[in-house]
């Protein structure tokens, strides 16, 4: 992932087609030693493609993934609990009446 991030940063920084040396150099600047084979594979697979196109294609694939999720039976108690919490929040909070204080005015009205 760090190789893809470095490639993306270089592209966003103005390099249309970053080379292996560019990616290695950026990774070295932040103290990461990269695998030459993985960097070479990344650069070759992205050669001739714009970063925006690659991201757009990736987002289409991510949208089709099943990320799990609960069944309707499992979500019913959670929904009921959320409704109970919402109802508890909606109740107005009544304040206790404050007792009147006898303030000494220093003999002002004597």
UniProtKB/TrEMBL annotation:
Residue ranges of the region described as Disordered: 81-110
Biased composition (Basic and acidic residues): 86-98
Molecular functions per Gene Ontology: structural constituent of ribosome
Keyword Nucleotide-binding: no
GO biological process: cytoplasmic translational elongation
Domain of life from the UniProt record: Eukaryota
InterPro entries reported for this sequence: P1/P2_N_sf, Ribosomal_P1/P2, Ribosomal_P2
Ranges annotated as spanning the membrane: none
Keywords: Ribonucleoprotein, Ribosomal protein
Gene Ontology CC: cytosolic large ribosomal subunit
Family as reported in the entry's similarity comment: Belongs to the eukaryotic ribosomal protein P1/P2 family.
PANTHER family linked to this entry: 60S ACIDIC RIBOSOMAL PROTEIN FAMILY MEMBER, LARGE RIBOSOMAL SUBUNIT PROTEIN P2
Protein name, UniProt field: 60S acidic ribosomal protein P2
Species this protein is from: Paramecium tetraurelia
């Amino acid at each position: 992932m760090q190789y893809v991030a470095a490639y993306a940063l270089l592209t966003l920084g103005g390099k249309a087609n970053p080379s292996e040396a560019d990616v290695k150099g950026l990774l070295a600047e932040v103290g990461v030693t990269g695998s030459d084979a993985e960097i070479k594979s990344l650069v070759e697979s992205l050669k001739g493609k714009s970063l925006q196109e690659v991201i757009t294609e990736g987002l289409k694939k991510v949208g089709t993934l099943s990320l799990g999720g609960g069944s309707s039976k499992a979500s019913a108690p959670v929904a009921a609990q959320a409704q109970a919490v919402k109802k508890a929040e909606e109740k107005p909070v009544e304040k206790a009446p404050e007792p009147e204080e006898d303030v000494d005015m220093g003999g002002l009205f004597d």
